[in-house]
Amino acid sequence: MSTIKKIAVLTSGGDAPGMNAAIRAVVRTAIYNNVEVYGVQRGYDGLVSGSIVEMNAKSVANIIQRGGTILKTVRSSEFKTKEGRVKAYENIQKLGIDGLIVIGGDGTFTGASVFGKEFDFPIIGLPGTIDNDLSGTDYTIGYDTAINTVMDAVDKIRDTAESHDRVFVVEVMGRDSGLIALRSGISIGAEAVLIPEIEVDYDAIMKRLDQTRKNKSSRIIMVAEGDKDGGLVVAEKIKAKFPHYDVRVSILGHIQRGGKPSCMDRVLASRLGVSAVEGLIEGRRGEMVGVRGGDVAYSPFEKSIKHIDKINTHLTKIVDILSQ
Ligand code: F6P
């Protein structure tokens, strides 16, 4: 018999499309298994302040298609302190909550790992970040929607680039990771993709721009936010080398985090939400649930937040081959 009778769910860190679908799955799976379920508002801050409300099947109706998170989210500084975590534990104890599900990225899991060990408390994590920069899962909730948003935006930019014979440098999100830039870059036929994981070869990029001029009237260079130069500097370098080029920069920003989740993200969030609750009931703790090779897989928080390189060199090669 499981000891888990009452659980809480929260979202933390940057919002990601599909977080609501994940909350819905957690709440309804808990109810299905006769487990009471609470929602914590504003991430770990809500645990510290006691903003915790009971949820039912109706509280998560009509949210599967909505971006953002109905529970709201923050990057909590209070939870980083021992005093904050003690308050959080006291609030959990008061309500008799015996398990926690956290949806977020590496900061969320770092907090979960510390708290879980400090108070010997069962926590399961769901990967929710547009950056896809977590080990232990092939894809994170929100990534598919974000790369489709980038693709749609750059398709529009392409119309202007083509009409004016311009080079556009497009900067996309990914503070520490080039996974958004790489996949969306392939999808829009980028000339080059600049990502923090790989040293940039400016000579090769300039050579390619020079060579491809005869084949194309518009060119797009995709730059990840975490690139050491960033979009503005990359554009300056191109302009310095080719003063006759008409170069523009577009920084896509937070539109990449919003919008209704794609089908892939809704299904991923639903699968992981169900597995997170089932995992807790089975006695799992201190793990993130993800998908690897199409199957649900659990990995310890420490392993999932270790920034291993998820860059697939086949994809980087594809950019080079196809950009002629
Ligand atoms: O972690 C996701 C992310 O979108 C990063 O790619 C980006 O650097 C960051 O969040 C931006 O965060 P904020 O909304 O706090 O500016």
From TrEMBL:
Locate the residues binding substrate: 129-131, 166, 173-175, 225, 248, 254-257
Signal sequence annotation: none
Keyword Manganese found: no
- Record-level GO cellular component terms: 6-phosphofructokinase complex
Domain of life, per lineage: Bacteria
Under catalytic activity, the entry for this protein gives: beta-D-fructose 6-phosphate + ATP = beta-D-fructose 1,6-bisphosphate + ADP + H(+)
- Activity regulation information from UniProt: Allosterically activated by ADP and other diphosphonucleosides, and allosterically inhibited by phosphoenolpyruvate.
- Might you give the EC number(s) for this enzyme? 2.7.1.11
What InterPro entries has UniProt attached to this entry? ATP_PFK (IPR022953), ATP_PFK_prok-type (IPR012003), PFKA_ATP_prok (IPR012828), Phosphofructokinase_CS (IPR015912), Phosphofructokinase_dom (IPR000023), PKF_sf (IPR035966)
Q: Which PROSITE patterns match?
A: PHOSPHOFRUCTOKINASE
The record ties this protein, via Pfam families, to:
PFK
One term of GO molecular function: AMP binding
Query: Binding of ATP: at which residues?
Result: 14, 75-76, 105-108
Which pathway is this protein assigned to? Carbohydrate degradation; glycolysis; D-glyceraldehyde 3-phosphate and glycerone phosphate from D-glucose: step 3/4
Q: Where is the Phosphofructokinase domain?
A: 6-279
Location (main, coarse): cytoplasm
Residues that bind Mg(2+), according to the entry?
A: 106
| Catalytic EC class | transferase
Q: Which family does it belong to?
A: Belongs to the phosphofructokinase type A (PFKA) family. ATP-dependent PFK group I subfamily. Prokaryotic clade 'B1' sub-subfamily.
The molecule here is called ATP-dependent 6-phosphofructokinase
Source organism (scientific name):
Candidatus Sphingobacterium stercoripullorum
Gene for this chain: pfkA
